[in-house]
């Protein structure tokens, strides 16, 4: 016969619910975490992976790396910049770089390719800079 000692402390209802909720959230985030080969990203793993060859980034333009959530630009020959590819207005991913701006399709925000500053649209602040290293013809996240 199995007995249950009600005097022993056990996890409360809130603790159980919170633990199950946290586990579910972790599973959902893992499932949505990218790492696939879709988009035009050539990132290799998380942080420090090669994003592109320097020759892949046009002078006066740039390229969006969807999976890495980074946009790399080359405002002047040999000068490479990187920014978050998530618009500071509503978090939509930017989709292109043309005419000297990084462009968000959701509400028309435009950001300067040299410093990420807002050039138009409802975005309230510049795109945050992302640290990169450029060596041997490769651009990597730092």
Describe this structure in words.
Helix content is 13%, strand content 30%. With 142 residues, the chain is of the alpha+beta class.
Helix count, per DSSP?
A: 1
The description of the largest β-sheet is:
4 strands, antiparallel
Uncertain segments of ≥5 residues (pLDDT<50)?
21-46
Overall structural class, as computed from helix and strand content, comes to alpha+beta
Number of strands: 10
Give the arrangement of secondary structure elements.
Layout: H1 13-31, E1 50-53, E2 61-65, E3 70-76, E4 79-84, E5 96-98, E6 101-103, E7 110-112, E8 118-120, E9 132-135, E10 138-141
Antiparallel strand pairs: 1-10, 2-3, 3-4, 5-6, 6-7, 7-8, 9-10
In brief:
The protein has 142 residues and is α+β, with helices and mostly antiparallel strands. Helices cover 13% and strands 30% of the residues.
Keywords:
globular; single chain; alpha+beta; 142 residues; four-stranded antiparallel sheet; 10 strands
């Amino acid at each position: 016969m199995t007995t249950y000692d009600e005097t022993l402390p056990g996890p409360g209802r809130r603790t159980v619910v919170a633990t199950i909720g946290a586990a579910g959230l972790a599973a959902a985030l893992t499932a949505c975490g990218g790492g696939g080969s879709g988009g035009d990203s050539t990132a290799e793993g998380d942080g420090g992976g090669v994003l592109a060859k320097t020759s892949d980034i046009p002078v006066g333009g740039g390229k969006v790396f969807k999976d890495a959530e980074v946009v790399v630009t080359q405002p002047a020959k040999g000068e490479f910049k990187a920014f978050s590819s998530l618009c500071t207005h509503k978090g939509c991913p930017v989709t292109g770089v043309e005419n000297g701006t990084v462009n968000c399709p959701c509400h028309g925000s435009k950001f300067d390719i040299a410093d990420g500053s807002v050039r138009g649209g409802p975005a309230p602040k510049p795109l945050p800079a992302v640290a990169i290293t450029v060596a041997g013809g490769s651009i990597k996240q730092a």
